[in-house]
Amino acid sequence: MEDLRLESKKKVLAVKDLPTLPQVLEEVSKLVEDPTVSTEKIANVISKDQVLSAKVLKMVNSPIYGFPRRISTIQHALVLLGFNVIKGLIISTSVFDIMNKSMVGLWEHSLGCALAASTIAKTVGLKDPEEYAVGGLLHDLGKVIALVQLPELKKEVEELVKKEDIPYYVAEKKVMGFGHDRINAWLADYWNLPLRLKEGLAWHHQIKSAQYYPEMAAVVHLADFITRVFEVGFAGDDHASKLYPEACKILKLSSKTFEAILDELADEFLELSGFNPEE
């Protein structure tokens, strides 16, 4: 099994086959390392790619973030959201084409999870709720990459889900020796994502393993659970993911507040339905 895991990791991270991230992301990542660089300069580099800029701005103005006034420039978006959020949105739009063609339900689920994560983070008073939304948006990224890099294994996973009626990530571990959460961790390192975001992507199914930012793992876990309960999109199986009580304890979330979040999201999910950043 260990040999299969190592071989699969090599395939997953094969650079020539990974979805190509825009060149501007590499340029901007270098700029951000300079503490004196201005948001205007960073925004100018991103704005060179007009198609990408349009997609990012559409995401920023989506119901996920709920800003009262329209954000019309990348610079304004950077000031409001910060580079980590914009970087996450750029990555999500870069893999969207793959989702759009063969995993439409997963994209809808990911959008729903982003909205739920943002709402949870705001409700419990966490700083920078927009970053939690990115955690929700990218939490199933490993499933998309598995489709590209390990298509033959992904088919086995889907067949096992139907045959044994088990959750998708359980089937992943049976077939591949690891789940999409492990792929998420590899990608987070490969794309140099912030540690807080990596913890959410890697540990939303194993909250106790999040050593540095358990709040992020807890928020993404709850967001995934709620999005499945409301049946927003399709994450690969019909199971509502197991709800870990630790998530509510970490966030100091009472049952009354949790119910209020569910009521709020019932309306917000309706507003989100039909949203497509490609249109």
Would you write up a description of this structure?
The structure is a single chain. The chain contains 16 helices and no strands. It is an all-alpha fold and 279 residues long. The chain has a single domain, classed as Hypothetical protein af1432, CATH 1.10.3210. The relative contact order is 0.13.
Quick take:
The protein has about 280 residues and is an all-alpha fold. The protein has helices spanning about 1-10, 25-30, 40-45, 50-60, 75-80, 85-100, 105-125, 130-140, 140-150, 150-165, 170-175, 180-190, 195-205, 215-230, 245-250, 255-270.
Name the descriptors.
Hypothetical protein af1432, mainly alpha, single chain, globular, 279 residues, 68% helix, 0% strand
DSSP strand count: 0
The number of distinct helices, counting runs of at least 4 residues, comes to 16
Class based on secondary structure composition and strand pairing: mainly alpha
CATH domain fold name: Hypothetical protein af1432
Query: What do we call the CATH homologous superfamily?
Result: Hypothetical protein af1432
What is the top-level CATH class? Answer: Mainly Alpha
Domain HDOD: 18-207
Pfam families: HDOD
Organism: Desulfonauticus submarinus
InterPro entries: HD/PDEase_dom (IPR003607), HDOD (IPR013976), RNase_Y/CdgJ (IPR052340)
List the helices and strands and how they pair.
Elements: H1 2-12, H2 23-32, H3 39-47, H4 50-60, H5 74-81, H6 83-102, H7 104-123, H8 129-138, H9 141-149, H10 151-164, H11 168-176, H12 180-190, H13 195-203, H14 214-229, H15 245-250, H16 255-272
Helix pairs in contact: 3-5, 4-6, 5-6, 6-7, 6-8, 7-8, 7-14, 7-16, 8-13, 8-14, 9-10, 9-12, 10-11, 12-13, 13-14
